Automatic annotation (TrEMBL):
Keywords: FAD, Flavoprotein, Oxidoreductase, Quinone, Transit peptide. One of its GO terms (biological process) is sulfide oxidation, using sulfide:quinone oxidoreductase. InterPro entries: FAD/NAD-bd_sf (IPR036188), FAD/NAD-binding_dom (IPR023753), Sulphide_quinone_reductase (IPR015904). This is Sulfide:quinone oxidoreductase. Residues 9-128 form the FAD/NAD(P)-binding domain. Its cofactor is FAD. PANTHER family: SULFIDE:QUINONE OXIDOREDUCTASE, SULFIDE:QUINONE OXIDOREDUCTASE, MITOCHONDRIAL. One of its GO terms (molecular function) is FAD binding. It comes from the Bacteria.
Length: 415
């Protein structure tokens, strides 16, 4: 087989939220820069709206666009998968056998959904009342099931961290619970998580406990979903450190799959022992290879894996990549910012924003534990616009997040 070696100043692996934003920002800053963007996907997805799709509030068709229509002008799109990283040789190898040599590499390959790690799940997903907002194909089925449920038991599960949008498993839960409440339906809702609390940041977790109590949801901590029997409608969990198994019958089951770094990263010298791509959590640079940077869901940075984090990380990567290429300029640092718009009811959102170490950093000087209609509007209308029309075109938009203090008392929850 004849293979070709492509040579580019910057190679970007993955044309998702992170890769497209980095390519567009680099081009906007340095129009002459020679960039290759490598991704074999046909479509690009606006994944944050899948929660709304699963809650019956958004059209799934509006979350997908053809990837080729989003490639920034002047950027070379190589529609292939990267099969191997060879950072010692400043090279990646593609699925067709071609190689791409680079001066600087940006790894933005997202994460991998490990559906297969839950026994019986793949066979039953999309039928037998088993759904997941974590895939374009299934998010509409979530709403189909919820809107047809007349009573019974609804289970919502969360896998071990890290996952993308750690709040998404409970967003599905609250939208469903609100629907059951509004329609006077007697559905017992249960939430299962391996973790010890509803959220990793105690400031928000305490407010979410009130949401859980309001809807009469039963939260099961220390529980990991390990098997699903679709035809019999049962879910099996391992509980606690001794992994005792318990089985629960359901009428509806919303599953969030276990997640890990893409296999191509796990088996590469870029990964650390966890399998994720190792980067300095502030500069987003590989500790082993000075000309390699990583951002988005695929890295070891201990922030919440969100598009909001990508929006904050992109200017840091772009600044540090240009600095590396020119040998001059200041270093940029990422503070761990992420945002998680928690859909606590149909029409209201608790906008959880925070940085590294759980520091609460809202964009607005309002108590973020209070769900607001304005934030629903922000999520449903403004953020999709910001994403498609600004961020993916290299304009990350306004950044007002700041450390702010709020009263210790947790506000009452009103849906
Ligand atoms: C249900 C759900 C709800 C969410 N809600 C929110 C929210 O409310 N707010 C928020 O900010 N974020 C939310 N997110 C998270 C957000 O969508 C992700 O954090 C974001 O998309 C990460 O961007 P990324 O570029 O790292 O990965 P992605 O956007 O997933 O893109 C990864 C890209 O890499 C490509 N790729 C993978 N492997 C290779 C390879 N070997 N070679 C070449 N290319 C490769 C893929 O084809 C893909 O195009 C949500 C996600 C889900 C699933």
């Amino acid at each position: 087989m004849t293979t070709t070696t492509h040579r580019h100043t910057v190679a970007i692996v993955g044309a998702g939220a992170a890769g497209l934003t980095a390519a567009a920002m680099l081009k906007r800053t340095r129009p002459d820069l020679d960039i290759a963007l490598i991704d074999s996907a046909t479509y690009h997805y606006y994944q944050p709206a899948w929660t709304l799709v699963g809650g019956g509030c958004y059209d799934i068709g509006r979350t997908r666009r053809e990837l080729r229509t989003l490639i920034p002008q002047g950027v070379r799109h190589l529609a292939e998968r990267v099969e191997q990283f060879e950072p010692e040789h400043n090279r990646v190898v593609l699925g067709n056998g071609d190689a791409v040599e680079y001066q600087v590499l940006i790894v933005a390959a997202g994460l991998q959904l490990d559906w297969h790690k839950i026994e019986g799940l793949k066979e039953t997903l999309g039928k037998n009342g088993v759904s997941s907002n974590y895939a374009y194909e299934y998010a509409p089925y979530t709403w189909q099931c919820i809107s047809q449920l007349k009573g019974g038991v609804a289970l919502f599960t969360q896998p071990a961290m890290p996952i993308k949008c750690a709040g998404a498993p409970q967003k599905a839960l609250y939208l469903a619970a609100d629907h059951f409440r509004r329609n006077g339906l007697s559905v017992q809702s249960h939430f299962y998580t391996p973790g010890p609390a509803m959220f990793s940041v105690p400031f928000y977790a305490q407010a979410l406990d009130k949401v859980v109590a309001h809807y009469g949801i039963t939260a099961h901590f220390g529980h990991t979903l390990v098997a699903v029997d679709g035809p019999r409608r049962t879910a099996t969990f391992e509980v606690g450190p001794d992994k005792q198994r318990v089985t629960q019958a359901f009428d509806f089951l919303h599953v969030v799959p276990p997640q890990s770094a893409p296999d191509v990263i796990k088996r590469s010298p870029l990964a650390d022992a966890s399998g994720w791509m190792a980067v300095d959590k502030f500069t987003l640079q590989s500790p082993k290879y000075d000309n390699v940077f990583g951002f988005g869901d695929c890295t070891t940075t201990p922030n919440s894996k969100t598009a909001a984090a990508v929006r904050a990380q992109a200017p840091v990567v772009v600044t540090n990549v240009l600095r590396r290429l020119s040998g001059s300029g200041g270093e940029a640092r990422y503070d761990g910012y992420a945002s998680c718009p928690l859909t606590t009811s149909r029409g209201k959102i608790m906008l959880a924003e925070f940085c590294y170490d759980g520091v609460v950093t809202p964009s607005f000087p309002l108590d973020p534990r209070i769900p607001r209609r304005s934030y629903w509007w922000l999520k449903k209308h403004y953020l999709p616009y910001l994403y498609w029309e600004q961020m993916l075109r290299g304009r990350p938009g306004p950044d007002w997040h700041a450390k702010r203090e709020f009263p210790a008392q947790v506000p009452t929850f009103e849906p």
